[in-house]
Specification:
The chain has 298 residues and is of the alpha/beta class. The protein has one domain: Alpha/Beta hydrolase fold, catalytic domain (Rossmann fold, 3-Layer(aba) Sandwich), CATH 3.40.50. It is built from ten helices and eight strands. The protein has an eight-stranded mixed beta sheet, with helices on both faces. Helix 4 links the parallel strand 5 and strand 6. The radius of gyration is 18 Å and the shape is globular.
Length: 298
């Protein structure tokens, strides 16, 4: 399915980036739950069918900040910092999708008990979400993958022109590096709300303490996706810097696994930030109907 014209429904808040983050976080219930060898920090909002949102590499729960308030009106939204990222504890190696999914599963199960869940994962979080989906098994009610590719062994572009921030001691100069990198790697040509994107990029990169291992068995992950009984969707921005030149491989890999595919025009890698309403609509179409049906059947 192709995306529609770019939505203008989301307006940029007049509050500064830090104040906007604080306003969303103020409404969260924050809880630390043991995982596999480390504690996972979760932020929880809303009530309803349970929805887990997983962030990308070099990020934190903030990768979903524009989506959390609207989704929390109809879901019990659960957003962890993946172990080794943000405010979660540093896990023992290896730091690959399988071990991180194992830790998150133990932690998430302690929170949801026997309840069913839907999962959405962004970039690195998409491969972790797939491992998590397998472990939830019959309790999974829907899976949405955003910006997926390299974490599944699918051919991807090595993005050029990124700048090193670790060697920059001056705060303002380092922020300019983050601003450049978020534009280059994460966003499409028409992206707005750059101040918030820069703040999230800076906090996420500087809070990352592990190097995610991308070496994966693409065939194994494909078999996991193909074996899921729950509905599944995969979404990319057409201007995704990591996908550039490799769209066909994604169509083949994820389409043959049974995912409903969407490509959003004039949108970069961080699709849920640039196109929140469209991503939330995909989550609803994939997860909400089935979640309510499961609840009513009990």
């Amino acid at each position: 399915m192709q995306g529609q014209a770019k939505s203008t429904a989301s307006e940029v808040s007049p509050l500064g980036a830090a104040a906007r983050i604080a306003e969303v976080e103020r409404r969260a219930r924050i809880i630390d739950v043991p995982g596999k060898g480390s504690s996972v920090r979760w932020r929880l909002w809303g009530e309803g069918p349970r929805l887990i949102l997983l962030h990308g590499n070099g990020g934190s729960w903030l990768h979903w900040i524009r989506n959390i308030p609207p989704l929390a009106r109809r879901y019990a939204v659960m957003v962890p910092d993946v172990p080794g990222f943000g405010e979660s504890e540093l896990p023992q190696p290896p730091h690959d999708y399988r071990s991180l999914a194992d830790s998150l599963y133990l932690s998430a199960r302690a929170l949801v008990s026997r309840d069913s869940v839907a999962i959405a994962g962004f970039s690195m979080g998409a491969s972790i979400a797939t491992g998590l989906a397998k472990q939830f098994g019959q309790s999974l009610r829907g899976l949405v993958l955003i910006g997926a590719g390299g974490g599944f062994g699918v051919a991807s572009t090595q993005v050029k022109g990124l700048r090193r921030w670790r060697d920059v001691s001056d705060f303002e100069a380092r922020r300019q590096v983050h601003r450049h990198n978020v534009r280059t790697l994460m966003l499409g040509p028409d992206a707005t709300d750059i101040d918030l994107a820069e703040e999230i990029q800076a906090r996420g990169n500087e809070g990352t303490r592990v190097r995610f291992r991308r070496e994966v068995d693409g065939g194994l992950l494909h078999s996991v996706l193909s074996g899921l009984e729950a509905p599944m969707a995969a979404v990319w921005g057409e201007e995704d810097s990591i996908m550039r030149g490799h769209r066909a491989e994604r169509e083949d890999y994820f389409g043959s696994a049974g995912a409903e595919l969407t490509f959003l025009p004039a949108t970069g890698h961080w699709a849920q930030f640039e196109r929140p309403e469209e991503i939330e609509a995909v989550i609803d179409a994939t997860c909400l109907f089935h979640a309510f049906n499961a609840a009513s059947a009990r």
